[in-house]
Write a structure and sequence with these properties.
By secondary structure, the chain is of the alpha+beta class. About 30% of the residues lie in helices and about 25% in strands. The strands form 5 sheets. Strands 5, 6, 7, 8, 9, 10, 11, 14 and 17 form a 9-stranded antiparallel β-sheet that branches. It has a 5-stranded mixed β-sheet with strand order 19-20-21-23-22, sandwiched between helices. Strand 7 and strand 8 (about 170) form a beta hairpin. It binds flavin mononucleotide and manganese (II) ion.
Length: about 500
Amino acid sequence: MAPPADLRAWMRLLEDEGELVRVSAEVDPDLEVTEIVDRTVRAGGPALLFENPKGSSHPLLINQFGTERRMCLAFGVERLDELAERVEDVLELQPPQGLLDKVRGLQKLKSIAGSGPRSVRSGPVQEVVLTGDDVDLGLLPIQRCWPGDPAPFITLPAVITRDPRTGTRNLGMYRMQVIDRNTTFMHWQIHKDGRADWLATDGRIPVAVALGLDPVTAYSASAPLPKHIGELMLAGFFRGAPVEMVKCKTNDLEVPAHAEIALEGYVEKDELGLEGPFGDHTGYYTAAEPFPVFHVTAMTMRRDAVYPSIVVGKPPQEDAWLGKATERIFLPAVRMTVPEIVDYDLPVSGAFHNCVIVSIRKAFPGHAHKVMHAIWGLGMLSLSKAVVVVDAHVNVHDYEEVFFYVGANVDPKRDVVISEGPLDHLDHAPTLQFVGGKIGIDATSKGPAEGTREWPEEIAMSAEVRELVDGRWEEYGIPAHGGRDSVQNGSRRSLRHLIRR
Ligand SMILES: Cc1cc2nc3c(=O)[nH]c(=O)nc-3n(C[C@H](O)[C@H](O)[C@H](O)COP(=O)(O)O)c2cc1C
Ligand SMILES: [Mn+2]
């Protein structure tokens, strides 16, 4: 099934699938929503539509991405790995061999060529237009998420800018702390494309913010694409249809025509204020820091616009599955430069930048070290603090299994690499902000070529006996829950178990 075309289609789909619960009781966006959502996310519960958020006439949608099933529904796939397969298919475009191959190749090219956004003359996002003194962010049920947050924060925006030098459009998800009825902060972290666009301007940079998008476009705002690749292209590729854009009323940018709400305005090069603290996905309050100020010159919306929100905090939270989608979607791109990588896993509890587990087809001495350094040199993965490398046959998603090899195969003196480099903007542990230590753990098997003794053979049952037991299993009369099934499905379950703790 094709992904939903806009937020309303998505909400209908969620409702039809029993994945959306409407809450009609009046609930306060000040902290109360967070506590309800925190409990719901941890229980693997449904998306929630708060129909009567206190102080606002706009419903608040939250937890739309909070489970693997909903993330799959959002993209119209059965498994997130299908997304990787689609990307791989395009990246591995080879010269065609024969007619059938040529036709397939053309179809692939078309799927990319037709992915770019399309300009349209009008769209429902501009059914209501508020400018000047009518702009009022107080109309929206913006959450104050955690007790230490000084103000409400817009948490699920797609922020649109253009590079002043090249005109390239960027979409990014950056939290926005509300200052007053028509200004917010813009939390452009140091490594992000939105910040680079702002730094490249001489005076003021036009900015537009879309709220309430179809789930694939909303996801794509969080995707760590290289700066020259547009996020709307990725969205169009996965949607199978271009994102339609309509011109803003008060600046030269465009916003998705089918969004629920759009904020138009600008950011000055030299106007900064103290943003934060904010209870963030690190599980801690990130300290107040200077960030630029966003002035809202127009607020446009659909009639009865739905306001989307997300809570981040101590993992696991709803953003876990946005991160898992990124992990799957970007695997083929990672493999393009480091083809010996079989698979990788960024544990949710590692807040995505703390730890990467990677399995490799090891081919030469020191190979695991090569891969560690490759990861520390690759896009946003470069911010990874710990890299654990295991052999190809190890299931990187099964943390018990990984821990087994870290214990069994590692001589800490020989196999631990301590390095340094750039770290996540929000990481509070390093002595200096932005830069500090890295740890690499080589948990692959070694051999004399790497200066070790002869490596022992791992225990495994012979194929003949496994087949014999498979064939005779019914005969033994051992109930499935204690036997074969639970062993065969063990790794999938353990991932889910960790996320829905
Ligand atoms: C819910 C959520 C909130 C986020 N908040 C921020 C934020 O406040 N600031 C930031 O720089 N990145 C934030 N990110 C990460 C960025 O969206 C992500 O790095 C994205 O790739 C940025 O786009 P860019 O590379 O085009 O700048 C957030 C991600 C999610 C899923
Ligand atoms: Mn970008």
